[in-house]
Write a structure and sequence with these properties.
Chain A is of the alpha+beta class. Chain A has 6 helices and 14 strands. In chain A, the strands form 3 sheets. In chain A, strands 3-14-4-10-13-12-11 form a 7-stranded mixed sheet. Chain A has a 5-stranded antiparallel sheet with strand order 6-7-8-5-9. The two termini of chain A are 23 Å apart. In chain B, the strands form 2 sheets. A 4-stranded antiparallel sheet of chain B has the order 3-4-5-6, with helices on one face. Chain B has a two-stranded antiparallel sheet with strand order 1-2. The chains are: A alpha+beta (209), B alpha+beta (126). The complex binds zinc ion.
Chain lengths: 209, 126
């Protein structure tokens, strides 16, 4: 396990974190006063399932998932706390409540039977963050080439790209927040990078969104 | 930096893509009559033209799908983007496709000539 950012050593051995990571606190007030420019909140209690299947199978899932899975590239379908995120023409990332995972997987198996599909739980592989705050787009713009302006990256849009060399998926989830998905192994790096990029706006790290 | 139009995601930075080299290289079937020299030509020879080149690209950091790109190696202009399994639709792209030495190569003929007993006809794309 990586040590926390405030503790740069574990058992006396140097941590693989940059000195900058440990130098930055959990909360940095907005130097201009007012609310922090960006809030970075871990989203807990969700299961992620990577679903690979053809369109005809996707269509069958509407009843089980509650809403049609996105047919258009780079779109998100929402139903309460559930999200279905387009990852590819035959690939969707399903986000559901953790306690519903077992039942959902059983129902999926019953519904699809011997159809050709793959549903892989990937919750341990991917970390979810919710980014809020009025300067969240300015922070992301420092490391991501996507045009995230609300005029082109509208609510319900998603995109896979890179943030400072780390592979990420972004979703414009609500009018005032984005969902950010990244590899668990990169999550410390991504949060450190976000903190560093947000020094001029102030930031706050939250445990649960 | 190029901007490449992924057939699914639209215009994205080159940084998100990987180039897979020359497109439209048909693999000879396992059961084929071609000589070792012709097989070596298929396996090792890659074109490196000055001008329009048909390439495979992959949207590695995005949707992770392969597609074809017709790109000018001098100006870097991208003439067209088209799906895997398809042929170029522009006149210049089509001409580059037809002009390739591979169209007449024994290896490509050995990829096209599909014996019924080993392959279903539906897999004969070219
Ligand atoms: Zn793409």
């Amino acid at each position: 396990m990586a040590s926390s950012n405030s503790d740069n050593t574990s058992n006396g051995a140097p941590d693989a974190q940059t000195p900058q990571a440990s130098a930055l606190p959990e909360i940095l007030p907005n130097p201009e006063g007012g609310a922090a420019g960006i809030s970075i909140a871990k989203v807990a209690g969700r299961t992620l399932i990577n679903l690979r299947c053809e369109d005809n199978i996707k269509a069958k899932l509407e009843a089980l998932f509650g809403t049609p899975l996105p047919a258009e590239p780079n779109k998100v379908a929402s139903m309460g706390t559930r999200r279905a995120i387009w990852l590819g023409p035959d690939e969707t990332l399903l986000m559901i409540e953790e306690e519903q995972e077992a039942e959902f997987m059983l129902n999926l198996k019953a519904l699809l039977g011997t159809a050709h599909y793959a549903a892989t739980p990937v919750s341990d592989a991917i970390k979810i963050f919710r980014l809020g705050g009025t300067r969240r787009l300015d922070v992301l713009a420092k490391g991501c080439a996507l045009d995230l302006h609300p005029a082109s990256f509208k609510q319900g849009d998603c995109a896979q790209s890179m943030l400072a060399h780390a592979a990420i998926t972004l979703a414009a989830d609500t009018p005032d927040s984005l969902l950010l998905f990244c590899r668990t192994s990169y999550s410390d790096y991504v949060t450190s990078w976000l903190k560093d990029a947000a020094v001029e706006y102030g930031y706050i790290l939250l445990d649960n969104a | 930096m190029l901007e490449i139009k992924c057939p699914y995601c639209g215009l994205r930075d080159e940084e998100e893509f990987g180039c897979g080299g020359e497109a439209h290289i048909a693999r000879p079937l396992a059961d084929n009559p071609i000589s070792d020299k012709d097989f070596a030509d298929y396996l090792f020879y890659r074109d490196n033209p000055k001008g329009l080149f048909l390439e495979r690209w992959r949207h590695s950091a995005g949707c992770r799908r392969w597609f074809n790109v017709a790109r000018d190696t001098v100006s870097h202009q991208i003439l067209e983007v088209y799906p895997m399994g398809a042929k170029p639709s522009t006149k210049a792209g089509r001409a580059a496709y037809e002009a390739s030495w591979r169209r007449q190569s024994p290896a490509e003929a050995a990829a096209r000539n599909i014996p019924q007993k080993t392959r279903k006809t539906s897999t004969s794309k070219r």
